[in-house]
Amino acid sequence: MNGLLGLIGLGYRGRLVVVGVDAVRRELQGGTVRCVVVASDASRRAVEKVVRLATARRVPLVAGPRAAAIGARLGKPPVMAVGVRDRGLAEGILRSAPGRAQ
Predict the structure, then answer these.
(1) Per residue in 62-100, pLDDT tens?
(2) Which helix H or strand E contains 83, and what residues bound it?
(3) Straight-line distance from the first to the last Cα atom of the chain, in angstroms, rounded to the nearest whole number
(4) pTM score, two decimals?
(5) Residue 101 resides in a domain
(6) What is the domain extent for residue 19?
(7) Please, what is the angle between helix 67-74 and helix 2-13, to 10°?
(8) Nearest to 67 by CA among 90, 94, 44, 38
(9) How many domains is the chain built from?
(10) For residue 54, how far is the Cα from the chain centroid?
(11) Which of 38, 44, 84, 89 has the most CB atoms within 10 Å of its CB?
(12) What is the rounded distance in angstroms from the CA atom of residue 38 to the CA atom of residue 74?
């Protein structure tokens, strides 16, 4: 998971990712997200809002670490979803992810 968190942090610093359920949903609706990392302890509401839309849009889902770990890496409170806009970064995340969500 450290590799995955490192890539998320890199993307955040480069403004290649969007953070949070609402932001990820907006980007999914706009068709700009290449993959979505979902925290392992994401709330049922977050899963319903993000996973369903990502699945409908055929955007790959990645099972991430706990929300607190993602948030800590980004210097934020717990983060349940991260949307990746950059194609190269998304490919790297998909390769480094230990598993896919749902």
Answers:
(1) 999 999 999 999 999 999 999 999 999 999 999 987 655
(2) strand 81-84
(3) 17
(4) 0.91
(5) no
(6) 2-96
(7) 40
(8) 38
(9) 1
(10) 11
(11) 84
(12) 15
Give the whole-angstrom CA distance, residue 93 versus residue 84.
Answer: 9
Task: Please indicate, yes or no, if residue 24 is contained in any of the structural domains.
Answer: yes
Whether the Cβ atoms of residue 83 and residue 36 lie closer than 8 Å to each other: yes
Helix, strand, coil in percent for the chain, rounding step 5: 50, 15, 35
Residue 102 falls inside a structural domain: no
Sequence-separated (6 or more) residues with CB below 8 Å from residue 83 = 17, 18, 23, 24, 27, 28, 33, 35, 36
**CATH number where 42 lies:** 3.30.1330.30
The encoded tokens of residue 102 equal 């749902």
Tens digit of pLDDT for each residue in 44-69?
998 899 999 999 999 999 999 999 99
Inside any domain, residue 26: yes
